[in-house]
């Protein structure tokens, strides 16, 4: 059994990280260990940058999140941002604020979870920063990818009449987190939700496919839930949106979990975050362009609504045999 | 008087940041507000990346560090890393972990200190991340710059016989921090030290000049002090180094501060961090290449020693009329 990281030097911590990583590719002219990393970008490609942080007690709870899942999630949220732009991952910078009491095995577990996901996406760690934390464990990752200019996906291109799609299923991560917090037993369909919360799969392949043949007019990832996603795209594109409640691909295990607690599975799945699926819009005449994405994107795609002219973002739902439209709850909240 | 940031939404915080920033340049295809930033890099240029974090109670003390100085320092440490590579700054991603009790005026002060330094170096903020912190205020910045391949400065190129130079003066920031901690009165020469600690000037212009005419064979910035810098370059380049104590450009206010406390000004200035000067090596025949850097680098350059064949890193000092060589203390320390 090994001790805490407080007895190691920063160099020893860096060596532990490097032992998990792929060898640096040729385009990385200077990698880990100098003042900065240097890369030689490909020609005719745009560079895409994103930063996202996971903070202990805000974004994860070490009591029920295994170290490998902490590392996986920290990188997955960043990969998901690249996927939403249609970009292919190239490199990442890792910035850790580490409590000195963190067990070494936990540190290694975090790195191995992160490194395994990085290797699957051929993402190279180019450097970063290590500092100690007098408070929570914090993992801040900056990720860099590349994409051709015409293939870049933004939130701005949706037009009235565009169809709205979502990948995979929703509600799973929110239900899985509740199951972990409740610390009770759950069946196989519940385990799917738990695994989705712990090890979300960023839709990198789907994002690059949607950009490559210009299938999507706007795209975003669902880090903060579908309700937030539809509002963000609607606002950035200057359109309204109507979402069909019956069409939502709610994960079955999440649906039964929410029902067993007397909650509205539709509303919980709309507002629950952490699914890291993609929401995107498609011109009605260009639905055929989705075929390669459906075939090779490794995840089902579901049409869930339509863009409208007005600014309203609404949920269409059958209540006692009558279609009702209600505003979708705002994702805005205070910073507390 | 305004309240704390806990009552604002993330959007409102982002709007407060944007109000301080330069308008985005043409090469920034997508800036703040989408899933990621997208840039179009210049042709025939390498991209340089660095990440560095400031954590409250580890890297700064809010009791005596004004908000503008916190923002300035957070960016300065990153700009200094680019300067050490010979790279010109292009963009930065800002990742903040904010305690909800942080006063809004302090938040705005941090941003304005950071934005003022960014504007002076034509650095553009391309995005980032905001999260709340249940612990310390943390500012994690990833900075991206560009440099031509042949003009890149690393730590690896020093050879035996190369002369060793340092820019500006050393010891000032360490003395200034002690003055702030002592909270007593100090004279004008002490105020220079305090200002150096609060508002260090990253040597961006000097770094690009040293790279442009290939004057320096190795280069690094003094974030952790000169003793650490000489060891890092010596190890990366596979050389030894002898530093001449009498030649060290110790800031006068620091020298008298350390003397007044009965401390050895040479040792304190060698091991004191936060000066953010550049240390670099120059082939003896190529000393003439330093002229443009001396003339336009906006900071004096001082020759402080020579690279040797052996691995030893030593300080040469006159003691009672005799030259003594002693090992320079190691910068390694545990992570606590």
How would you describe the overall organization of this protein?
The structure is a homodimer of 336-residue chains. The first copy, chain A, has 336 residues and is of the alpha+beta class. Chain A is 33% helix and 26% strand. Chain A has ten helices and 13 strands. In chain A, the strands form three sheets. A seven-stranded mixed beta sheet of chain A has the order 8-10-7-11-9-12-13, with helices on both faces. A four-stranded mixed beta sheet of chain A has the order 3-6-4-5. Chain A has a two-stranded antiparallel sheet with strand order 1-2. The first copy, chain A, is globular, with a radius of gyration of 21 Å. The mean pLDDT of chain A is 92. At the A-B interface, helix 1, strand 2, strand 3, helix 2 and strand 4 of A face helix 1, strand 2, strand 3, helix 2 and strand 4 of B.
Strand content of chain A: 25-35%
By DSSP, the count of extended strands of chain A is: 13
Number of helices of chain A: 10
Shape of chain A: globular
Gap from first CA to last CA of chain A: 39 Å
**Class per helix and strand makeup of chain A:** alpha+beta
Largest sheet of chain A: 7 strands, mixed
Major sheet of chain A: order of its strands?
8-10-7-11-9-12-13
Radius of gyration of chain A: 21 Å
Q: What order do the SSEs of chain A take from the amino end to the carboxyl end, as H and E? A: HEEEHEHEEEHHHEHEHHEHEEE
- As an assembly, this protein is homodimer
* Low-pLDDT windows of residues of chain A: none
- Summarize the amount of helix of chain A as a percent range: 25-40%
How confident is the prediction overall: mean pLDDT of chain A?
92
| Largest two-chain interface | A-B, 76 and 76 residues
């Amino acid at each position: 059994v090994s001790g805490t990281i407080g007895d190691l030097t920063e160099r020893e911590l860096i060596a532990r990280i490097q032992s998990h990583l792929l060898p640096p590719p040729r385009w990385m002219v200077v990698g880990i260990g100098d003042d900065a990393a240097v890369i030689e970008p490909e020609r005719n490609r745009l560079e895409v940058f994103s930063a996202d942080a996971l903070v202990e007690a805000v974004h994860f709870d070490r009591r029920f999140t295994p170290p490998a899942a902490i590392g996986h999630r920290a990188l997955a949220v960043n990969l998901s941002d690249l996927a939403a732009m249609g970009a292919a991952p190239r490199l990442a910078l890792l910035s850790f604020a580490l409590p000195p009491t963190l067990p070494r095995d936990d540190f290694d577990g975090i790195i191995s979870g992160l490194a395994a996901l990085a290797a699957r996406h051929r993402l190279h760690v180019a450097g970063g920063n290590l500092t100690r934390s007098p408070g929570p464990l914090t993992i801040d990752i900056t990720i860099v990818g590349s994409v051709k200019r015409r293939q870049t996906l933004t939130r701005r291109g949706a037009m009235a009449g565009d169809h709205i799609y979502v990948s995979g299923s929703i509600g799973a991560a929110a239900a899985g987190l509740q199951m972990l917090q409740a610390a009770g037993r759950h069946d196989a369909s519940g385990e799917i939700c738990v695994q989705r919360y712990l090890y979300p799969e960023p839709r990198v392949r789907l994002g690059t496919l949607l950009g490559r043949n210009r299938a999507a007019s706007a795209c975003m990832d669902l880090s903060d839930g579908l309700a937030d996603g539809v509002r963000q795209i609607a606002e950035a594109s200057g359109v309204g949106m109507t979402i069909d409640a019956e069409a939502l691909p709610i994960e079955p295990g999440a649906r039964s979990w929410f029902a067993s607690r007397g909650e509205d599975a539709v509303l919980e799945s709309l507002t629950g975050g952490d699914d890291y699926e993609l929401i995107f819009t498609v011109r009605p005449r260009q639905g055929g362009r989705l075929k390669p994405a459906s075939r090779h994107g490794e995840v089902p795609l579901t049409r869930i609504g339509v863009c409208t002219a007005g600014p309203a973002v609404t949920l269409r739902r059958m209540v006692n045999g009558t279609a009702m439209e209600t505003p979708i709850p705002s994702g805005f909240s205070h910073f507390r």
